[in-house]
Specification:
The complex is a heterodimer. By secondary structure, chain A is mainly α. Chain A has 10 helices and no strands. The longest helix of chain A is centred in the first third of the chain and has 31 residues, at 2-32. The radius of gyration of chain A is 18 Å and the shape is globular. The chains are: A mainly alpha, B alpha+beta.
Chain lengths: 192, 237
C-alpha cells in the first residue's frame, strides 16, 4: 500500500513538474532576463516544492504556489547580488533610445527587447511587483502577501515601475489585452 | 498614478514578452529529468538508527573514552609529558604567527625571581597552530618554592578559578588579548586591534626537593573543557 501511495505521490509530482516548467521558466526569465538564471531558479523552486509536496499537492493551485516561491527566490538572489555590487541585468547589446521619436521607429522586435531590457534594469522588488501584478495578473493584496509588504508599497512600486517602463511599452493592440497565462487558475480573484 | 490605459499596455507588454520566452530544449530536458522527489522517511527505521547512534556515543563516554580529545592531532611533548592535540593542528615554532600572540600571553603574570627564561622564541615553549588561526602553546615554567605569601608565582590571581585536571589541582583564566597590541595604522586609516579570547591553564606539578613547577598551557580557540582534557590526558600518561 505504501508503495502504491508513494508511486502515486511521485507521479503527481512529475505531472506537476511537466505542467509548471514553462510557466515558471517564463517567470524566472522575466525576473532575471537570463535563460540560465531562469533554469537555476526553476530547479531550486522544484527542490523547495518537493520538500513540501505533501502540503502543496493538495492546494488548489500548486503552480501559483511554486511561482510565489520562485519570485521570492529571485528577489532574494537579486538583492544578494546587489549587495555584492554585481549587476543583475544582462549587459545590453542594444542601445537605449535617444528620444521618443527614435523609440517609435524601433521595430516590434526591438520594442520587445527594449521592454525586457528596461524591465531587467528595475530594482528586484519593483520588477517582482510588475511581473506578479501585470503578467500573473494577481490582485494587489496577493502581491503584497507574496512579497511580504503592504498593499500601499505594492501600489507605489507598481506606479514607479510602470512609469519607468512606460516609454518602452508597445502601443495597445486593437484586440485588447491578451489572455493572462494564469487566467484559469487566478480567475477567482475579484478584488482588482 | 496608474491609468487603466497604462495598465492595459503593461499587461500586453508582459504577455508578449512572456510569449517570446521559450524553454530551451536542453534546459527542459534537464529540468524534467532531475530527481526532485523528496525521499520518503521510514520513521521506525529512523528511530532505530537514532537509538543506535545514541548508544554509539554514550557507551564510549561512559567507559571513559570521552576524556580524550574527539579527534587525534599531533602530539605536543614537554619533558616526559605528551599532550594529544585535536585534529587540525600542526606543530609550529612558538614565535611564528599565529602563536606568537598566544606565547606572549603565556609569559608569567608575576615574574619569578629565579626566572631566567628568554623571549618566547627561546623558551621551552611548544606550540601548535590550526589553519583557522587557533593556537595551543604549552611550557613547563621554572621551578619555584611555594610560600604562604606566593603559593604560585606563575598563576594569575585575578579572574582565575580552580579546576580539577585529572588528579591535579589547577587554575584557569580567560582573558582578552589584543592583536596587534595597539591601534594599527594602515593605508586605509586607523583600525582597531583585534580581540582574541585566550584561555590559560596553570597546573602546579611536584618538581622534587619541595619545589613545584607549573604546566602552563594556553589556547586561543579552545574551550575550557577542551583545554583541561588535553592537559589531564597528557599528565595522566
Amino acid at each position: 500500500m505504501k508503495l502504491v501511495r508513494g508511486g502515486l505521490r511521485r507521479r503527481q509530482f512529475e505531472a506537476f513538474i511537466a505542467d509548471a516548467t514553462d510557466v515558471l521558466f517564463r517567470a524566472g526569465h522575466l525576473m532575471t532576463g537570463d535563460a540560465g538564471s531562469a533554469e537555476d531558479l526553476v530547479q531550486e523552486t522544484f527542490i523547495r516544492v518537493a520538500r513540501r509536496w505533501d502540503r502543496v499537492r493538495v492546494m488548489d493551485h500548486p503552480v501559483a504556489y511554486a511561482r510565489r516561491v520562485l519570485v521570492n527566490l529571485a528577489v532574494t538572489e537579486a538583492e544578494r547580488r546587489s549587495r555584492q555590487r554585481a549587476e543583475l541585468a544582462p549587459q545590453p547589446t542594444w542601445s537605449e533610445p535617444a528620444d521618443q521619436a527614435a523609440a517609435g521607429a524601433l521595430s516590434e522586435v526591438e520594442v520587445k527587447a527594449e521592454f525586457r531590457w528596461a524591465l531587467a534594469k528595475l530594482p528586484p522588488r519593483e520588477r517582482a511587483v510588475l511581473v506578479l501584478r501585470y503578467w500573473a495578473d494577481l490582485p494587489t493584496a496577493e502581491v503584497a502577501a507574496i512579497l511580504g509588504c503592504s498593499a500601499g508599497t505594492v501600489k507605489s512600486s507598481a506606479s514607479r515601475g510602470a512609469a519607468r517602463l512606460a516609454r518602452v511599452l508597445p502601443q495597445p493592440s486593437p484586440a485588447g489585452n491578451p489572455a493572462s497565462p494564469y487566467e484559469e487558475s487566478e480567475s477567482t480573484h475579484a478584488d482588482r | 498614478m496608474l491609468t487603466d490605459e497604462l495598465e492595459t499596455r503593461l499587461r500586453e507588454a508582459f504577455s508578449q514578452a512572456a510569449a517570446d520566452i521559450e524553454v530551451p530544449g536542453q534546459a527542459r530536458r534537464r529540468l524534467l529529468s532531475r530527481d526532485y522527489h523528496p525521499r520518503t522517511v521510514n520513521r521506525k527505521l529512523t528511530a532505530v538508527l537514532a537509538a543506535a547512534a545514541a548508544v554509539a556515543i554514550a557507551v564510549p563516554l561512559a567507559i571513559g573514552w570521552g576524556s580524550r580529545p574527539a579527534a587525534a592531532g599531533p602530539v605536543l611533548r614537554l619533558a616526559s609529558y605528551s599532550f594529544q592535540l585535536p585534529a587540525g593542528y600542526q606543530l609550529t615554532a612558538a614565535a611564528a604567527a599565529p602563536c606568537h600572540v598566544t606565547v606572549t600571553a603565556l609569559l608569567p603574570w608575576d615574574p619569578n625571581a629565579n626566572d631566567r627564561r628568554g623571549p618566547p622564541g627561546q623558551t621551552a615553549m611548544q606550540a601548535a597552530a590550526s589553519a583557522a588561526g587557533g593556537c595551543i602553546a604549552a611550557m613547563l615554567a621554572p621551578p619555584y618554592t611555594p610560600t604562604a605569601a606566593v603559593p604560585d608565582p606563575e598563576a594569575p590571581v585575578d579572574g582565575a578559578h580552580p579546576v580539577q585536571v585529572g588528579r591535579y589541582h589547577g587554575v584557569i583564566v580567560h582573558s582578552l588579548t589584543h592583536y596587534p597590541p595597539a591601534l594599527v595604522f594602515s593605508v586605509t586609516g586607523i583600525r582597531a586591534a583585534k580581540h582574541q579570547l585566550f584561555t590559560e591553564l596553570f597546573v602546579p606539578l611536584p618538581a622534587g626537593g619541595g619545589e613545584m613547577r607549573d604546566l602552563v598551557i594556553g589556547a586561543s580557540q579552545l574551550s575550557e573543557s577542551e583545554l583541561i582534557k588535553i592537559a589531564a590526558t597528557g599528565l595522566a600518561a
